[in-house]
Amino acid sequence: MAEVCLRGLMKKYNHLFLSFIIITLLCACASSAPKAASPLDGILRECGSSLPDALVLGIYGEESQEFITEDPEVILAVIEAMKKIQTAEPVQERVTDSDVLFEFRWKDGKTLGVRFEDRNLVSDGTVLKTEGAGELFALLSAIQEKAKPLSAVSVKCISAS
Question: DSSP assignment of 18-83, as one string?
């Protein structure tokens, strides 16, 4: 009788242990699922290979302003904030008076631009709803304070793709 009771107890513990293993594996698979590709990924990958030498910030609305900074801490903060942005479905209504352009520049002449319209990412002419862009837009006033204003800048936007 003791042997039957011991076998029953061992079966319960085996089932419990196997259940624990299965749940652990399911949680691990769910957390390592690849995230959807963002149009920012290519630009961020490019910025990650070598830090840009300058950042031009263009704020276009009723009054347009442009600033340039060569401060690596500011440039890195912008890149890190962009990494946190997720894109969602396209936005149906377009706003034409609230564009923000971040243009990264390297000394070799390469430039990459990221444009936002009403805090939503513009990618290949499509405006995508963004989530997690609050930190990036919170940096705007800090950049304006630290950066040099530009009176006339030729800014060419390369859309994120």
Answer: HHHHHHHHHHHHHHTSPPPPPTHHHHHHHHHHS--SEEEEEEESSS-EEEEE--HHHHHHHHHHHH
pLDDT digits (tens, 9 = 90+) for 63-98: 888 999 999 999 989 988 988 888 888 888 777 677
Query: Where do the domains of the chain lie?
Result: 1-33, 40-150
Side chain identity at 5, as an amino acid letter? Answer: C
The count of other CB atoms within 10 Å of the CB of residue 109 is 6
Distances (CA, A) of 107 to 62, 74, 99, 101, 110: 32, 17, 26, 19, 7
The DSSP H or E segment spanning 12 is helix 2-31
Segment (H or E) for 149: strand 148-150
pLDDT on residue 157:
44
Other CB atoms within 10 Å distance of the CB of residue 101? 20
